[in-house]
Amino acid sequence: MRNLSILIIMGHLLFFTAHSQPVPAPDENIPWLVTFGGDACPSWGDDNFTQTFFFLIPEDHTDPVYIRVYNPVTGGQYDEINGYWNTKVNFSVYGGPETWSHPDAQGTGPDGNYRSGNLIASRTFGYEPEYDAAWYTFGPFNPMEGEYVEKFRGNVFKIIAQGVEGDDGNLYRYFLSTSPDQNIPVEGGNAFAYSYTFRLWNDPSQVSHIYPYIDDETITVEISNFDWDYDGIIRLVSVERQGQLLDVSGDDYWAQNRFTILEGERGTSLDLQFHKQASPVIRNNNVVVTIRNQYDQALPFYVIPIGGVPQYRYSIGVRPAGN
């Protein structure tokens, strides 16, 4: 996949061509997003049974767009059972004023007016076999139905997946498409979230990545991970960090890491790498990750990293957490 490049001009982010828009994206190497039913225990790896993603449509794209969901049902071949199947998950799409710009929309959980904007599409799925390992399509949407955000030079839609009942895990993916029945990317589009809940591979040789963007105003950050189950190491790589190891969480609790952003890291993405342990192999491991700045504001994870996947530029050793 060709990396997304940016120019920062007068405080605006200008997004250029990206050739792939699945969520998760290929550079992330994440098999699934995951949302559990609202009656589940967080120890299954979902802290609040809600996941919000934003889709960015460049302002020069005027044709209809579609948000496609792969495997929206719970109870199929890829989902995670907890006793017996009893789960329903709602997917809702929002556009219009305050879809993204409302402060509650940029939080890490279902708090306050996190469903800000205009509800333009919604469906709740239990188990409908026709959508097991198959696509369901929301749309068409006129890009103007989204919220125009000057900072992004584009229109933003929001999709919220929320477990409304039951306690099983729904594993799913998204695709931002120009077609209702094919995955054809919106040129220059992207997707981002402020809290990332995802499934890890069972294969320890597979390394997953997520890419928070560090803007010019960020001085310090706190990176938190939930329910990692001590499953190996989490490493931070950037243009100035070769490999900083983070404190990791066990079952059903958070681990926090605070450190100062280096000068060269501003205006770039970080690379959080998830390296599973080889033995014992922990299967079906779900994890939640957030990152906040010095003002306690959540920072976004872009599925196509802004500025491209960061490449370490200097010769330094692995740093312990907190440095």
Q: How many strands appear in the DSSP assignment?
A: 24
Helix content bin: under 10%
Briefly note the CATH topology name of the largest domain. Answer: Jelly Rolls
Mean pLDDT: 92
Distance between the termini: 32 Å
Principal-axes shape call? globular
Find the structural class using helix and strand composition: mainly beta
What is the CATH architecture assignment of the largest domain? Sandwich
What is the C-alpha radius of gyration, as a whole number of Å? Answer: 19 Å
| Main sheet makeup | 9 strands, antiparallel
Beta-strand residue fraction: 35-45%
Number of domains: 2
Low-confidence stretches: 1-19
Give keywords.
323 residues; mainly beta; Jelly Rolls; 2 domains; nine-stranded antiparallel β-sheet; seven-stranded antiparallel β-sheet; globular; disordered N terminus
Task: Describe this structure as you would to a colleague.
This protein has 323 residues and is an all-beta fold. It folds into two domains: 6-199, Jelly Rolls, CATH 2.60.120; 208-302, no CATH class. The chain contains no helices and 24 strands. The protein has strands at 6-9, 12-15, 22-23, 32-36, 50-58, 65-70, 88-95, 118-125, 135-141, 147-149, 154-165, 169-177, 190-193, 196-199, 208-210, 213-214, 220-226, 233-237, 244-245, 254-260, 268-269, 271-275, 286-293, 301-302. The strands form five sheets. Strands 3, 4, 6, 9, 12, 14, 17, 20 and 23 form a nine-stranded antiparallel beta sheet that branches. A hairpin with a 2-residue loop joins strand 1 and strand 2 (12-15). It is globular, with a radius of gyration of 19 Å. The two termini are 32 Å apart. The relative contact order is 0.22. Mean pLDDT is 92; it is low at 1-19.
